[in-house]
Amino acid sequence: MSVFMDLNLSYTNDKSRMQSLIETAAHLGYSTVAINYTYELTIKKSKVPVPTPIKDLMEKLPIVQGRCRPIRVLNRLTVVMSEQCHFKKTGREFSAYDLLAVQPATEKLFHAVERGIMFEVSYSAAIRDSTMRRYTIANAVSLVETCKGKNLILSSAAEKPLELRGPYDISNLGLLFGLSDGDAKEAVSSACRSVVLHGETRKTAGGIVHTMKCCSETPDQQEAPPADCEAPAAKRAKQLTE
Amino acid sequence: MRAELDQTPRSLLVSERSSFRDQKTRIRAQVEQLHFNYKVSVLLPECCSAPPHLDSIFNTFNSFYLIRNLPVYELLDKNFLETAVYQGSVYGVSYRTRIDEDNCVALTPKGHLTLSLDKDSFEILGVEGKPSRFNHRTKCRFVVSVDLTDSSMAPGGRGYQRLLTGLRSRLQLKTDFLLSHYPGGGASLQALLSRYDWSEHRPQISRHTLTDLSCPALLTSDLQSCDPHSFMEWVGAVDANVSCENSSSSFLSSLVCPEPRTTVSRALSVSVCGLLLPHDVHRLIQEIRCYLEQPHLESWVCLTVHGYADSPVSWGDNEHSVLKGGENFYSLLMFQDDTYHLHLATGAHDTCPP
């Protein structure tokens, strides 16, 4: 298993509420959270929102309860699409975000997205309203049946700290949706980790090569700064010997 | 909706009846094998204050040490191995690390070092290990188990060097660490402690006097009135100070004392918390046996010992993990005639207790 994550904390302009959300998440035991900015693709002249730097949001990130590390905060963008539009996910305005999500508003788009990555079920709507609770459970049960419990993450979409629940509680909620014990726990841990790693590979070439711009101190340097290649921690290509 | 909603995650309860005077009794081994004990609670019925001998045992539990941010390669330090690990019994477990989230470390008294690592850390470390028994779909947790007393792990040897290099330069694993040593106490650990931020701690003792406590009746050695599960639930409720009244006006607890029941006018519950050694648990058991030899109103005492929920190993060197709960504990119900009922319990991600 990996650390617990909640990859959907709704962004508000209220800085103290955001701080409170992050503190509550750390207190509940989440090691990584993602602040979700929403962007409507179909509204003309709407610009992709620029994420607030985490440093400006909170100077010192709180320590996760029961561990000795501070909580990790990521930025996430959810693109709401209600008709087939051209969406270029490698655009510069998206590079500020660690995670990209798509919220299809029609069934047609839903099928298009289907061959994609992970599905997400948010639970805070179920906390706010009883009718939404029924819909959430019904839809989640259908989703779990279709994807057989794999490639699913559970997150809050919380707007207030009171709408957050602890990771083990959400893992139990997953049982209501039809997940097994192991799958439900993975939906708040390992599956979220896969999503975050996948998000990191968007900024790399093929998920292997990561380039970093080197700052050169002398401005009149002729040659271009070299690219720093950093292979991920684990694998090296086998040396073929003849 | 699936029908399995009424099922809870698997748990194991092993119950055993024997006598301390029986030649084949395994109680000593069973107590020894649970290396990392977090809490010991004793329930003494018809007793309002512990007798002095019993109290002195509680007060003389071994001290333990907390080292902040210890680099794990220090556990392979040649001097530490020679003065502490090879000589006596060192008990060490990482502190404030969650077994299902973080990298955890355990050092058992026989010199076994167990590292429970997540996938990235295991691949960076580059030492031989096995995938965890409790991996679900993907292999995301690995266990590296090393016998420090084995000849292949002698300082300077290849296996030793590889692990040392891995922990020192590749992975650089640092964790808060709880450490205790038997019998030498702190002297043999001083060299290691002096290099880092450390503090010595005494186990915390708390005492509660309970009045009008409902207990299962007919608690005698040859007849236990209720089944082990109900009995364990009741012991847990008493230890956690949860009411077993099940009154209609309260929705907090619907736990009840198993029938047939009796009421004890007063009882004493004593808990000791910290890194507690099996040796001290033994001394406590012997002292409780002496206490029971004298005539009392109620002829039984219940002792419960809890293991660390986030320890990489539970009994022996068996791997331990947490699914929903990381319980690994045993409850010893002792009687006047030197007989006992032993209940050993673990959660879903654990092996069968001995």
What do these coordinates show?
Chain A has 242 residues and is α/β, with parallel strands linked by helices. Helices cover 33% and strands 16% of the residues of chain A. Chain A contains 8 helices and 6 strands, in the order E-H-E-H-E-E-H-E-H-H-E-H-H-H. Chain A has helices at residues 15-28, 54-57, 107-114, 124-128, 130-147, 167-176, 181-188, 190-201, and strands spanning 5-10, 32-40, 72-81, 99-104, 119-122, 152-155. In chain A, strands 1-2-3-4 form a 4-stranded parallel beta sheet. In chain A, helix 1 links the parallel strand 1 (5-10) and strand 2. Chain A is globular. The termini of chain A are far apart. Mean pLDDT of chain A is 82; it is low at 217-233. Helices cover 21% and strands 33% of the residues of chain B. Chain B is of the alpha+beta class and 354 residues long. Chain B is globular and about 65 Å long. An 8-stranded antiparallel beta sheet of chain B has the order 7-8-6-5-4-9-3-10. In chain B, strands 1-15-14-13-2-12-11 form a 7-stranded antiparallel beta sheet, sandwiched between helices. The longest helix of chain B has 16 residues, at 278-293. Chain B has 2 domains: 12-61 and 203-346, no CATH class; 64-201, no CATH class. Chain B is built from 8 helices and 15 strands. Chain B has helices at 27-33, 52-59, 78-85, 119-125, 158-170, 190-194, 228-239, 278-293, and strands spanning 12-19, 37-45, 64-71, 89-95, 104-107, 112-118, 130-131, 141-147, 174-182, 198-201, 204-216, 261-276, 300-307, 328-335, 339-346. In chain B, helix 1 (27-33) runs antiparallel to helix 8. The A-B interface holds A 1-4, 31, 66-68, 141, 150, 168, 171-172, 175-176, 178, 180-183, 185-186, 189-190, 193, 233-234 and B 1-2, 4-5, 9, 96-98, 100-102, 118-120, 123-124, 136-138, 140-141, 175-176, 323-324, 348.
